[in-house]
What we know:
Layout: E1 2-8, H1 16-33, E2 39-45, H2 47-58, E3 66-70, E4 86-93, H3 94-104, H4 108-123, H5 131-148
Parallel strand pairs: 1-2, 2-4
Antiparallel strand pairs: 3-4
Amino acid sequence: MNTTISFEPETLTVEENLLEDILRAADVVGEIYGVENSELSLTLTDDEHIHALNKKFRGIDRATDVLSFAFRESDEPEIIGTDFEILGDVIISLERAKVQAEEFGHSFKREVIFLEVHGLLHLLGYDHMEESERQEMETEQKFIMEKLGIGR
């Protein structure tokens, strides 16, 4: 998968090996779901920025851990004549990931990758509004995390 990683604010940083793990996770998801030629934009951010996005686009006035914006669900025109699909954007709050990793008793890396996988599944059409959807999405997340060799 062609994954572009950006930081907002640009002063945020993570270790190089985490960036490699993020890219690997996107590639594995791409292979599993047959979207390996797709494009993904992934933004690593802080609570302040994701709070603003959550309020603007979802009407929820608080920070969250991950947001997904699927290109195929947007009002953007279809791109014709290409060999790739634009999946969309995944935005992850590194601050929330750190807090949640501590709460759940696992590594920061595991939490960031889990949030990435969760966001990617949303881009692929999975949801968790209904109990049956939640169970299906949870099964998919677990399968991918096992495939990546990242346990709790």
